[in-house]
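Same chain as my last thread, 239 residues:
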Amino acid sequence: MSYRTNIEQQSLLNQFLKDHGVQLSEETLSKLYGFADLVVETKQFGNLISAKDSEKFLSRHIADSLVPYIYIVKEGSVILEQGESAAIESMDPIGNSVSSRMTIGKKWADMGAGAGCPVFPLAIAMPEVQFYAVEPRHMRVEFMNYAKEKLQLKNLTVVGKRFETSGLADLDFISCRALSTFENDWERAQPALKKGGLFVTLKSFNSISHLENDPAVNIWKYKLPNEEQDYALVTRGNK
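reply #2:
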């Protein structure tokens, strides 16, 4: 079944966003559903996702991918404290748009982008940001280029290299999702962040609980629809 007609999954995603005070336009949601269909239904680039996860792609993977966007909308003051270049103005009450002062012209790279989460949902939600999906595996790169064209994402560039050899530098944001340990991911990201830039990563809470008393990081704990475990968005500013 297409995610464009999967009312149950759409409802779970939209309730998750509503619970966090965020509302997306119908055009944005339609592109998110379209991306989900591409990941689940496209077979010529190999199996991009497990059969189990393909049944809950919106509620599990799209929702998770949008957490950095929700965080930026809701926690602007925290980001402002961590990095001047990531400063944002206040948002409207339901977070319809991210401040153009904060986002326009900013550069955001996603390390180990895989099949496109979180970078595709973020690029769809924040069209004013220039995103770079960095991934060395050829078939994943081919898929992301295919999906980029299908979705007409002009603000996203697919880079088929390891992050360390990508040539990207002076970045405002660097993200990754369940890539390695926080410490390893930060070590890889930090040299390419501009001063005042922000590293953003999505992890299981258990894997980063040892960082709770680390003054250099900020942890935002959350749950995903119908998932038992706790998750965390962890950020660190490049002072």
